[in-house]
Amino acid sequence: MDITSPAFKTNASRAIGDARLQAALVYTRAGFQEKRLGAVTALPEFDALRESARDIKDHTLAHLDLYLEAYEEKVREAGGEVHYAETAQEARDLILAICRQAGAKTVTKGKSMVAEEIGLNEHLEANGIVPIETDLGEYIIQLRHEAPSHIIAPAIHLTKEDVEGDFRRAHTDLPSGRNLSEPASLLDEARAVLRRKFAEAEVGITGANFLVAETGTSVIVTNEGNGDLTQMLPKVHIVLATIEKITPTLEDVSQILRVLSRSATGQEMTAYTTFSTGPRRGEDPDGPDEYHVVILDNGRSAMIGSEFQDMLRCIRCGACMNHCPVYQVVGGHAYGWVYPGPMGAVLTPTLIGVDKAGHLPNASSFCGRCESVCPMMIPLPKMMRHWREREFERHLSPTTYRTGLGLWAYFAKRPRLYRWATRLVARALGNLGGRKGRFRRLPLAGGWTRHRDLPAPEGQTFQEMWAERRRP
Amino acid sequence: MNARDVVLAKIRRSLRVTGEEVARNATVDDRLRRAPVGVIPARGRPAPVKRIALFIKMAEAVSASVARVADTDELPAAVAGYLRSHNLPAALRMGSDPLLAGLDWTGTQVEVSHGAAGVNDAVGLSRAFAGVAETGTLMLASGPDNPTTVNFLPETHIVVLATSDVVGCSEDGWERLRAIFGKGVMPRTVNMVTGPSRSGDIEQTLLLGAHGPRRLHIIVVG
After folding, report:
1. Angle A18-A369-B43 (CA atoms, 0-180°, nearest 5)?
2. Residue B156 contacts by C-beta under 8 Å, 6 or more apart in sequence?
3. CB A156 within 8 A of CB B200
4. Which residues of B touch A194 (CB under 8 A)?
5. Nearest-CA distance B180 → chain A (Å)
6. What does pLDDT average to over chain A?
7. Which residue of B has its CA nearest to A226?
């Protein structure tokens, strides 16, 4: 897909002015946050489980090479095949080769963010294979030729009227007078349309929430059941997952599951958590004949041991974006690539480069809500600061920003001068602010005043107030 | 070097290890062998007398319906009654699970067929090897006894669960699975099923019956 992350500012301005998008985003605010809070409150051990989940991932990452080897061996014992891919291109080619081997014309897909990351659909289409997304949200955005705007609710930027329009455009064989005014009728139509597709596909591709080293098992966590139909009906099941999905044991999966769905949708467990190991056994009446796992690195191995290692604990629940004041107003597409919100602001620069994605770690109010709700306790704000530092070091930030920061640093390193200057500026601006105490326009502050007033300083500086309150 | 060796070498370089370290290997082997249990919430360790009531409560909370019968002999009548009361077709698809295979359907007018389910099967009947009280979750293992397609293709899924198979938490479920298949061995598929299929993808409105069953009915036996 096209990367528009460098145009984040334009994307964001457009999103804020888009009334339909704003209407759709209302549902994120109310829905996800309240549901998560309810589920977390109902489990007194939630924080202890977060710590346990974090420790499991830290332990796994520290022994990742060995767990990967153990995992591989178990997959092979169960009759499956493991393929490694260092880059997105390698992963795409591997999957295409397996599809061709199977003589595939159509391929059904369960929801996979890694497939979005490697641009799998475009690659299959370019090579004459039709990929069919079967998750309802993914199906909708595939009809619209759009990218997902949320990692667990890909069509969250759309209203039911949008979806109705898409279905009428796409399902032209159905009666035009049919009623599609309710989400339920839209769901029923998608179910009926996709039922036919499941049976036709030669290959089913899913992602994985976990790869279990103990048993050689891939795990998907879903609600609709489409991922299950995707992987049980075709002859070939391909799992696409990245290296950090490795988890030592079934018990470890049980630990992380307790924080995953609560953080994502506020459910205690999603409807389906499915553990798949190898192809169908000799006596099995159903299941795929072949089972392939494509394990992708795509830059993640370089994150190990770096200041971004903690990001590899991410289990893709979406809680950070559900609680992010920036995501709430600009939506997922503004981030310009596959991963939006705070987790995207940290991950995207590692995957596409900070030169392209430098705006993302800057699009933060540093309120810290993302970290406070993260089930894996990932220090997202800290890592966004690391990116800002790198951006500065590489001279990627704009000149005005660098000059301003340099000027500030000059004063900040001279405390007396700093105190004198800030006092002077605060008093002067306080007087200029007039009775309203606000500026509608101010030189050098256009980025702020274009969208809202700048409050004028009132009286003392922060340091003066601090010193006063410290006095007994 | 092939891609596998490249990726492993990169990971090892980042970790500053060779992969040959005795202590690291021992740590990994030990964890895989012991599979230590982490934090189990109090709700996942219910007193045995409360376990079944908790399972039923949690399953109903996720929109499954639950019925109880005292004995397996009562199952055919309970299934037939459920189908009738919901105006569903009196035709079942099921595998060869020993507990289900022994049922006598004469007099119920329910037509029973065996094997993997297809798109035209309206009702599936399965047996779970465990039910998790903590979350009202069923655990089902694939195979000729309980084909996975039966769990997903029919619009109505009926699952039989013996009271002796109700456990506190999923960790207890894994112990049961290991007792059946052996340590480190899995059937092709283990399904954890918590309520009927659902989607919230359109305007966050939660709807039952996405791609899997619209109805999940659990019959607890014993």
Report:
1. 115
2. B83, B86, B88, B122, B123, B124, B213, B214, B215, B217
3. no
4. 211
5. 14
6. 94
7. B211
Contact in structure between B221 and A264 (CB atoms under 8 Å): no
pLDDT band, very low/low/confident/very high, at B6 (cuts 50, 70, 90): very high
Side chain identity at residue A273, one-letter code: T
State both tokens at A156: 């969250």
Rounded Cα gap, residues A364 and A324, in angstroms = 8
On whether ipTM exceeds 0.85, the answer is yes
- Report pTM: 0.94
Binning pLDDT at 50, 70 and 90, where does residue A324 land? very high
Report the alpha-carbon distance of residue B201 to residue B94 in Å, rounded.
Answer: 31
| Helices assigned H by DSSP within A353-453 | 354-357, 359-362, 369-373, 380-393, 399-412, 415-432, 446-449
Tell me the residue length of chain B.
222
Q: What is the DSSP annotation of A254-280?
A: HHHHHHHHHHHTS-SS-SEEEEE-SS-
Dist. CA A233–CA A221, nearest whole Å = 18
Residue A305 corresponds to which amino acid?
A: G
d(CA A46, CA A265): 15
Residues in chain B closer than 8 A to A162 (CB atoms): none
Long-range interactions of A355-359: CB distance < 8 A, separation 24+: A355/A394, A355/A396, A356/A3, A356/A5, A356/A6, A357/A5, A357/A6, A358/A387, A358/A391, A358/A396, A358/A397, A359/A5, A359/A6, A359/A8, A359/A9
pLDDT digits 0-9 by tens, A160-185: 999 999 999 999 999 999 999 999 99
Q: Cβ contacts of residue B22 below 8 Å, gap of 6+?
A: none
Residue of A nearest to B177 (CA): A250
**Residue in B24, B148, B209 nearest the CB of A287:** B148
Residues 6+ apart with CB under 8 A from A352: A3, A5, A337
**Which DSSP string do the residues of B135-183 spell out, in sequence order?**
TTEEEEE-SSSS-HHHHHSSSEEEEEEEGGGEESSHHHHHHHHHHHH-T
Nearest to B211 among A45, A163, A191 (CB): A191
- E strand or H helix that includes residue B207: strand B207-208
Beta-carbon separation of A254 and B115 below 8 A = no
Amino acid at A189: E
Q: How far apart are CA B63 and CA B169, in angstroms?
A: 20
Rounded to an integer, the average pLDDT of A313-338 is 95
Let me know if B49 is exposed, middle or buried by CB neighbors in 10 A (0-12, 13-18, 19+).
exposed
d(CA A184, CA B208): 9
Cβ contact A84–B2 (<8 Å): yes
- How far is residue A293's CA from residue B3's CA, in Å, rounded to a whole number? 14
When computed from its CA atoms, the radius of gyration of chain A, rounded to whole angstroms, is 25
Q: How far is A5 from chain B (nearest CA, A)?
A: 25
The identity of residue A183, as a single letter, is P
